[in-house]
Specification:
heterodimer; A: 124 residues; mainly beta; 48% strand; B: 110 residues; three-stranded antiparallel sheet; 9 strands; 0% helix
Chain lengths: 124, 110
């Protein structure tokens, strides 16, 4: 079936980087954009950026510009999100999500398939 | 960063109809579609409504969405205990070139 499976939980020290993977199956990976969204404990969902898996175009939220890098490996049908210079405020669950409505760099915010989430804890 | 505004909580008894509001601005709800997600504790969000009022296959017709101007609402009729969850609205934001989310509404079924 169509699914996104993310890598496991991570514990990092302040100042380190983390790279989360998201493996797609059950659909043509390059036909959809993939977004990354995070949710800190008790907080709202927060968009981080997207990648067009077909042409590698990316767009990042200004909040994370310079700290986040989203990439993909089409041979592995896998997307990646790397976040650097971690602080305790980056402690959150990180989700990847498929965007079925993304066209020409614009979408609707409606993501039909989500990964199970990856808990990233930043602690000294 | 633009955000959408939702009431933090809502409640109803089984069988009742409840509505959850979502307020935005001209750069998001005012010029783009609205969608709604349901999030059960410890799980990923699930798409409930897209393009203002469309339901993905498998979502009961008890859930409906509407939009007017820079506001939107989610209605749940025939409330059931399994509807107890957090509900988030979202919309594309033209100034962000990405989606913005509401703060979430915790629905309690009394």
């Amino acid at each position: 079936q169509v699914q996104l499976v993310q890598s496991g939980a991570e514990v990092k020290k302040p100042g380190a980087s983390v790279k989360v993977s998201c493996k797609a199956s059950g659909y043509t990976f390059t036909s959809y954009a993939m977004h990354w969204v995070r949710q800190a404990p008790g907080q709202r969902l927060e968009w981080m950026g997207w990648i067009n898996a077909g042409n590698v175009n990316t767009k990042y939220s200004q909040k994370f510009q310079g700290r986040v890098t989203i990439t993909r490996d089409t041979s592995a049908s896998t997307g990646y999100m790397e976040l650097s210079s971690l602080t305790s405020e980056d402690t959150a669950v990180y989700y990847c999500a498929r965007d079925p409505f993304h066209r020409g760099g614009s979408g609707t915010g409606a993501f039909d398939i989500w990964g199970q989430g990856t808990m990233v804890t930043v602690s000294s | 960063q633009s955000v959408l505004t939702q009431p933090p909580s809502a409640s109803g008894t089984p069988g009742q109809r409840v509505t959850i509001s979502c307020s935005g601005s001209s750069s998001n709800i005012g010029s783009n579609y609205v969608c709604w997600y349901q999030q059960l504790p410890g799980t990923a969000p699930k798409l409930l409504i897209y393009r203002n009022n469309q339901r993905p296959s498998g979502v009961p017709d008890r859930f409906s969405g509407s939009k007017s101007g820079t506001s939107a609402s989610l209605a749940i009729s025939g409330l059931r205990s399994e509807d107890e969850a957090d509900y988030y609205c979202a919309a594309w934001d033209d100034s962000l070139s990405g989606p913005v989310f509401g703060g979430g509404t915790k629905l309690t079924v009394l």
